[in-house]
Amino acid sequence: MSTSSILRLAPLGFPWQTLDPFLFCVHHHDAYPAGNAQLGPQASLAGRKLGQDFAGQDGWSMYHGDTVPGFPSHPHRGFETVTIARQGLIDHSDSLGATARFGGGDVQWLTAGQGIVHCEMFPLVHPHAPNPTELFQIWLNLPAKNKMAKPHFTMFWHEDIPRTVHVDAKDGHTEVVCIAGSLSGMQPLPPPPDSWASAPHSDLAIWTLTMSAGARWTLPAAQHPQTRRMLYFFKGPQLQVAGQAVNSHSAIELQADHAVELINGNAESECLVLQGRPIGEPVAQYGPFVMNTAAEIQQAFADYQRTEFGGWPWGASDPVHARDRGRFAQHADGTLEERSTESNPLAPTS
């Protein structure tokens, strides 16, 4: 297969390089130690720049947290966050009165729309064992007509997310997890109603791939020639993409309307695929606000200063749930989703 299927190849940056309609993608992977009584790290925090700790000292960061790692209350407007909690747990609280604990493969899809304040904390629930935490956070733009939509969050519990394993002629295995966008007969869970992913022509997809040593699999062509596609090769020593050897920690822009064969090297590899038709509208971004014009950004700041997007009902800016609380989501309308911890080995145990 011709390497013309590869349009651009670059080392992964921080954050990862993205294409319209995606705005931002980051991969956090932290080897947190055992947790203390406050569900923070059972370790000294000396030498860390608390409140802005992204250095990865000892293999983990506190981020904006000063007791529990994570991101205390902060506002958003005009876009969506898709948080894929691959390992560990995330405690969510927001200005609508909603709250949740999710992890171990669960996904939260949050439409910030006209404005929301939320926090994302990483509780270290195991007091006698390490608390590894791994997640992707992806920012997905909203079209202008939906930027002031009502805020809303959806939980995709890992038990419900479609996945399949492709076995090739040499018994290599490729597991595909389908978070958004149909693939190989898999239909994803429905995204939020105001999302660009809900537009029938968006061709939006979020897939993760795990390939065993030596596995071969062909990434099918996208549905529309205008679609843009990025393949992020973030784990494993080497991968052949459309016949070209690619080293780990690479961002690869692919010709989306080409089918592309992937041939893995001699150790397990993992990739993330983000694709979609561009929204194609002006983007004005300042920190946590993403609108179409500078005037709309100024209005976002004014609205937040006036209303705090509903206020913060939780007291502390970094609330976490009890150590023994299982996976759940309490929505703003009072709907409660409870999920068993039995199928999730990284959920808290009593």
TrEMBL record:
Domain Pirin N-terminal per the UniProt entry, residue ranges: 63-140
Positions of the UniProt region annotated as Disordered: 325-350
The keyword Metal-binding appears for this protein: yes
Residues noted as binding Fe cation in the record, renumbered to the chain: H74, H76, H118, E120
Domain Pirin C-terminal: 207-310
Gene Ontology terms, MF aspect: metal ion binding
Cofactor(s), by name: Fe cation
Entry keywords, A to Z: Iron, Metal-binding
Top-level lineage group: Bacteria
Family, per entry: Belongs to the pirin family.
PANTHER family reported for this sequence: PIRIN, PIRIN-RELATED
Name of this chain's protein: Pirin family protein
Organism: Rhodoferax aquaticus
Lineage per the UniProt record: Bacteria, Pseudomonadati, Pseudomonadota, Betaproteobacteria, Burkholderiales
